[in-house]
Specification:
Length: 260
């Protein structure tokens, strides 16, 4: 009698990671916090640019494209920081009650769960801000283009978007880690806010050679003109990568030892 065929099922060990990653991407994009962030940013940016265009046409006051983008970038960063903190900290913290089911019932390790959440929130925040910033650059170039050559530089605009996105990536990484280690979402958001504001306040007290959030945001208009140091930009990106990697390591190790 013929032996029955043996069917071998090959299990992809990254399948649980991809499942959590895709699920979190969909949930984040559909969440009211994310949609409100995008909507308010678009409305505020459009209102700001249209107001400055109206002032230029009615009063004859010329506003440079780089100056407008610099001011608008500062508004976008400061206004988006609160939402970014909530999105980052709530990645794991908001699902504290269902983490055990995900880890124990769905065959996903804690490391894969944390990495999937981290990568999903990192991709959504950085990609969204980069898209919004690029749209602002294009709109500013078209609306404030005079008879002379625009003072916006393609390389400067790219450098500004990369610099701010790198800083946001580090903030998101540490926010996800804090949310994974904290006992509650509200506690995690409070602690992370205190750390961010405390660090920003201490940096603002340092003398000029040291970086300060206020000073760096004020210099964005010069970066948009193309006046920036490539070495400093590279160091900023590398520093953000190191901080993000350190946050991920702390989060993976800490979350792996916590009770779920």
């Amino acid at each position: 009698m013929d032996q029955p065929a043996v069917v071998t099922v090959r299990f992809n060990k990254f399948l649980p990671y991809w499942a959590v990653l895709q699920t979190d991407l969909r949930q984040t994009l559909r969440s009211w916090v994310y949609r409100l962030w995008v909507f308010m940013t678009v409305v505020a940016a459009a209102g700001f640019l249209l107001y400055r265009v109206g002032v230029h046409k009615e009063a004859g006051i010329f506003h440079s494209a780089a100056g407008q983008c610099g001011d608008l970038f500062r508004i976008m960063v400061v206004g988006s920081l609160a939402v970014v903190v909530v999105l980052a900290v709530s990645a794991v913290g908001a699902e504290r009650g269902t983490v055990a089911d995900s880890v124990l019932s769905r065959g996903i390790s804690r490391h894969q769960y944390f990495l999937a959440k981290w990568h999903a929130r990192l991709a959504v925040v950085v990609a969204t801000f980069a898209a919004l910033a690029t749209a602002v650059l294009v709109a500013s170039y078209l609306l404030f283009k005079s008879d002379a050559e625009s003072d916006l530089s393609l390389g400067g605009g790219l450098a500004a978007v990369v610099a701010v996105s790198a800083v946001l990536a580090a903030i998101v990484s540490w926010g996800v880690t804090v949310g994974a280690l904290a006992n509650g979402t509200v506690l995690g958001i409070t602690v992370f806010w205190l750390v961010l504001y405390g660090a920003g306040f201490l940096l603002s007290l340092l003398p000029e050679p040291y970086p300060s959030p206020d000073r760096e945001l004020a210099r964005l208009k010069f970066v948009l003109m193309g006046h920036y140091n490539g070495g400093l930009l590279t160091n900023l990106v590398l520093g953000s990568v190191v901080l993000s990697g350190l946050a991920a390591a702390v989060g993976v190790l800490g979350f792996g030892k916590r009770d779920v």
